[in-house]
Amino acid sequence: MLEVSATANRQAASELGTSLKTSSGSTFGRRARLAFYNKSFKLICIACAVFVCIILFSILFLMGRTGILTFQHVSPAEFFFSTEWVPENEQYGGLVFIFGTFALTALTMLIAMPLSILIAVFLAEMTPGWLRTMLRPVLDLLVGIPSVVYGFLGMTLLIPLLRDVTGTTMGDGLLAAAIVLTIMVLPTISRISDDAITAVPKKYRDASYALGATRFHTIFRVVLPAAKSGMMYAGILGMARAIGETMAVVMVIGNTPQLADSLFKPTSVLTSNIVMQIANVPFDSTWNYALYLMGFLLLIISLVMIVLIRFIQRKGVRG
Amino acid sequence: MKMKWFKTLAFTTLALAVMATAIPVASAASKLSGKIVINGSSALLPLTLQAAKEFKKANPKVKISASAAGSITGPQSVRKGIADIGAVDWDASTDVPGFKKFEGQVAHKVAVIPFAAVVNKNVGVDNLTTKQLQDIFSGKVKNWKDVGGSDAAIVVVNRAFGSGTRVNFQIKALNGTDFMSKGDNYKEVKSSGDMKTAVETTPNAIGYIDLVYVTSKMKALKINDVAPTEANVINGKYKVWGYGYYMTKGQPTGAVKAFIQYVQSKEFQNGSLKKLKFIPISAMK
C-alpha cells in the first residue's frame, strides 16, 4: 500500500517538473495522472480477481489431492458404504457421516421450507406496510447472528427443553440439530422468497381476483407457482448453509459415529466429525486423509448447489 | 468519491491479507538461535504462556511463540521441525493407547495435572471403584441403580479420541480399558469447556475433566474411596493424574534448554505454576 502511493507521488512530482518546463503541461499532467490511476486501479482489480481464482483452485486441488490419498489404504466401497468409523482400528467407513449430512439437511429443509414460505407469504401479501418495513430488517439481522451463538443456545436451552418435552435421556441428535439449523436458515429462505413473491406482477393477482378466486386460491394457485424458481433459489441457498454449518451442529448432535435410526440418537455429520477430530489426528495418516476427503465431499456438494442456483436463476430470468 | 472509498477498501484488504499470510510464515520459519516455537496441548498453554512471559523478561533477546491445537500436534510438530518444543499431556516417547511412541524425542516433565471423574448434581452416587468406572465407560453398566444410585440411565460424556485428558483418564482411572464408541446415551465433546457444560446441564451424566475445571455445578467423584484433592495427589492416595511434558528432538540445546530448565526451576514451579493450579513436579517424589 505504501509502495504504491510512493510511486504515485514520485510520478506526480516528475510531472510537475515537465509541466513547468514545457509550460503547457497542466492539462497533460492531469490526464497522465488520471490515466496512471485508472491503469493501476484496473491492474489491482484484475490482480484481486486472479488471486481469488487461484485460491479457489488451490483449495480444490489440495483438498482433492490429499483426500484421494485415503484410497491408498481404504477401498472406495468401504469409505462410502461402511458404517464402521473406528480410525484407531483402521476402519474408515464414512457412510455414517454422509448419511448424517443428508438426513440432517433433509430434515432441516422439511421443517424450514413450509415455515419460511408461510413467513414470506405473510410478509409479501398480508402485512400492512409499516409492519413489513419493521420485520424485514429484523429478519436481515437474524442472518448475521454468529452460528456459535445458535449452537450455544441450542445446547443450553433447546436440549434441556427437548429432554423435558419428549422424556428422552439425552436430547442430542438429528432433531435438535435440525431445529437449530432451521432457526438459522429461516431468515435467509424467507427473505429471498419474500422478494420473489413481491416481484410477481400485480396483474397476475388482478386477473385471478377477476376470475372470482379467493385470496387463498390466488396465493397458492397463482402467486406461489409464479414465484417458484425464486423460492427454489432461496431453498438451495438455505440448504447450502445448512450443509456447511459446523459450530452450531457440533454442539447439539452428540458426535458419536453411529447411524442415526432415531431422531434422538447421538450421531455425527461430515462437518462436525472434521472439526472434532482434525486437531487430534497424526499428520500424514490415512485418518487425516479421510478427513480431507470428507472436506472435499462437502466442497463438491456445495459447488453442485451453486451451479444449481445459477441454473435456476437463469431459468427464472427467462421465464 | 465512491471510487476512492472503494480503492481505500481494496488497498486495506490487500494489506491485511498480506500481513495475515506473512505472520504465520515468519513464526514457522524457526531454528534460528534465540527463537523458541512451542505447539501442542491446550491444557498446558496457560503454563507455557506464563513461563514465556517471565523468561522473556529475563532474556529479552529470546523470542518465544507459543500456540496450542491438541496434545498430539505437539510431538508431531517437533518431528516435522515446525516447533522446538511440543507440549503434550502424556509421555510421547512411550506407546500409549491409540498413539505410537515418537522415536528420538526426549520428554521433559513440567507439571502434574490431576483429573477427576465428574457427574451431574442429580446423581446420588459419590464413590465408584475402578471396576465400576471401567464398566460404565465401556458401556457394560447402563443404569445408575447398578452402581448404587437411583433407577436412571447413565449418560456417558467422553472426550474425542486424541485428547490428552482422555489418554490419561484411560490409563490411570480405567487401567487401559477401552471406551465404548457408540450407544443411545453416549456422546463425545471437543474440549474441556464443552465437557464442563455437558456434565453440568445433562441429568445423569458422567464424564471426566482436569481437576482445575471442576465447578460447584458438578460433583467430583471419589475413586476407590479417595477424594480427588491436591493433597491426595501429593500423598500418593489418588492415582488419577498425569505429568504434562515438553517434547524435544533429542536433548535440547541453547535457548530451548534454558527455557525448559526455567520451567522446571523451583522458582517457577512453586510460584506461577502453583498459582495456575498445577502441582509442582517436585511434590511427587
Number of strand segments of chain A: 2
CATH class of chain A: Mainly Alpha
CATH topology grouping of the largest domain in chain B: D-Maltodextrin-Binding Protein, domain 2
Distance between the termini of chain B: 73 Å
Share of helix of chain B, binned? 25-40%
Work out the oligomeric state of the chains in this entry: heterodimer
Largest sheet of chain A: 2 strands, antiparallel
Helix content of chain A: over 70%
Protein name (chain A): Phosphate transport system permease protein
Subcellular location (chain A): Cell membrane
Transmembrane segments (chain A): 40-63, 95-126, 138-162, 174-193, 231-253, 289-312
Organism (chain A): Paenibacillus phyllosphaerae
Provide tags for this entry.
A: 319 residues, mainly alpha, MetI-like fold, two-stranded antiparallel ribbon, 13 helices, 77% helix, B: 285 residues, alpha/beta, D-Maltodextrin-Binding Protein, domain 2, 2 domains, nine-stranded mixed sheet, two-stranded parallel sheet, PBP_domain (chain B), phosphate ion binding (chain B), cell membrane (chain B), Phosphate_ABC_transporter (chain B), Phosphate-binding protein (chain B)
